[in-house]
Design a protein that fits this description.
single chain; alpha+beta; 2 helices
């Protein structure tokens, strides 16, 4: 079954954070430890730039 744990695989550790009510987990091997970095970098379309591209990238939908 896939729910069985392999004792040889490294596991996440629970890390207490001073001054915080919540603990953190160490990152899983092979994952990005900083997910906010992906959200901060806007994705730019590839290819030639059109006349409205700058404005479209600056516009924010009203539900934000």
């Amino acid at each position: 079954m896939t729910d069985e744990l392999d004792p040889d695989e490294p596991r996440q550790k629970v890390v207490r954070v001073a001054g915080s009510r919540r603990a953190r987990l160490t990152p899983v091997v092979g994952t990005d430890a900083d997910p906010e970095r992906v959200a901060k970098e806007p994705s730019r379309p590839k290819g030639p730039k059109g006349p409205n591209d700058d404005r479209m990238m600056q516009d924010v939908p009203p539900h934000y």
